[in-house]
Amino acid sequence: MSAGRNFFLVDQCLTGLTGHHLFYNRALAEAATEMGFRTTVLAGRDFPADHLAPFDVRGVFRPDWRAAPPAWTVKSRFTLDALDRISFQRFRSDLKRAFRPTTWSPHDLVFGQMIAPRHLAAWLEWLSALPAGRAPVLAVHVAYDPSRFFAHRQLKRSLRMFKESSHHGRLIAMSDTSRLTAVYGELLERKVFVLPHVISPSIGKLSPFPEAVPPVFGVLGSPRSEKGFAEAVQAVLELSADPDPPRFLVVTNRPDASSLPWVRKLCAARLSNVELVDEEYESDEDYARLLGRTSTLVLPYHLNVYGARTSGVFCEALAAGRAVIVSEGSWMSDKAGDVAACRRTPERDPAALAAAIRSAVLDSRDLSAKALRAAPLYREEFSGRGFISGLMQAAEEHV
Fold first, then answer.
1. Which domains are assigned to the chain?
2. 326: phi then psi, degrees, rounded to nearest 5
3. Most buried of the four, 43, 64, 73, 380, by CB within 10 Å?
4. Cα–Cα distance between 326 and 307 in angstroms, integer?
């Protein structure tokens, strides 16, 4: 039961109006409130609270310097480690101040999002320090590279402290995929639950891609090396030499250093079958409209980063009834394979990716039909209400 319970959504990365943090927290806050919780959002100190009205929003967290280190620090391990320690101390201090006035009920829920190792260490120390019998249920979402957690010195110390505390049973952990939960379960020595990514409600309102229109292949999300942007551009260039080349919609804004030369090469090519998008998404509705102009998403992500992880672009594509092309051997390949609305390609292989796109052109109607049939199930699975329901079930099972 949720009636009368407090639910705190904690996102130190909720600092502005761009990116997925705003719609993600809104979707969760709306779902939690509909299910009877008294909902509060704890955000960055400079977040404009009126943009999450009518919810109670508290600006709590100072900027995380390790998340966005100055350019001159990135080649110094010593400096990055120092920034990590400082960011841990600041986050831990902000947590203590944020919750000091609260009178907890053991049935209240606190949800910590965007958990890097330093944040998990601070959360564990915060929970360990609460008075006996006065701790809420703390749910933490872990989805970054697990190796970062196993190697983090402060987290190891905080874990030892937490295991000796009286609140060891008040923690539940979750991640996006079954592959990640197994690894994080070993680290935390407890069951880790699968709770999937949450998409914007705007995605569910998209119309099907028109059958009479030739397919459009989207390379969406910021250009990054681990997302296979270089391989995607090489495939686009190869396919653009075909007699009847497929159409592409490619996002080029905010590339990382290794993707920037490929952005420049694609811009210099001036291909008539390729539309380049360099604008920032001002809202999730803007991104939804962009996604709506595609029939298939090209996601040749590298397995060393995305082998076990999911992706917001991937989940949004499935919920919108779009087909996907994904790297063979990834969790996303398994997930999309449930409905066969995908093509699989070996990672880091531009020629194989181009072949997969050619195959998807030939089978575009069949792929679209399968994706549309499965879309309602994915929209429910990736909804705010589905997430909150799963969180409540995990809390009832574990605590």
1. 6-198+383-398 (3.40.50.2000), 203-381 (3.40.50.2000)
2. -130, 165
3. 43
4. 11
